[in-house]
Amino acid sequence: MNKGSFWDDTFEKALEAGQSMAKSSAKQIKQTFSPLQMIKNALGGGESNPQSPMESKMKEMQGKKEMGNTPLDFSKLQEKYQNQDKAKTDMLRQRLFQMVKGGDEKIMMEKKQKEEEEKRRIAYEEHERKRNKQDQQRMMQQSGNEPQGKERQSVLAPKKKKRAQNPSPIEIKPSTGKQ
């Protein structure tokens, strides 16, 4: 036998499919719109055919579909959804807990920092007070008990010479020049 080309086989198959489709569609239309059956159904006499061939085919298809599918078990389905919801709520609860815990830790850290700053400030102020006190004591020691400034003179009193606060020692130079 000769094998035809690809295109020949394709056209033959399409032709055969078209012919069989034309025959089957003509039969289906004839069965659906049969004038004799319509008259019998209208008069109510003769054999009554409660189901048309199309309806019987539809019922067959539904039967096949029901055989292929398993019925849903709603209790198991609801249990699965509850488990998923529970997992999500647990995860959200953990996240909320972590956020609250992080917030508490942040507040505690800020409180500690404020306390440390207060301690540093108090220590600094105390140190400044001590230093000021020491400066004042040094100034008092350097100045002594003598008041500084001009002495008040009476109108009748003779002029007083100002005393030098610290008498300067006599300057002695090393021997220079002739001896």
TrEMBL record:
Q: Can you name the source organism?
A: Candidatus Roizmanbacteria bacterium CG_4_10_14_0_8_um_filter_39_9
Stretches of Basic and acidic residues bias are at 56-67, 102-136
> Residues annotated as region Disordered?
40-73, 99-179
Full protein name: Uncharacterized protein
Biased composition (Polar residues) is annotated at 137-146
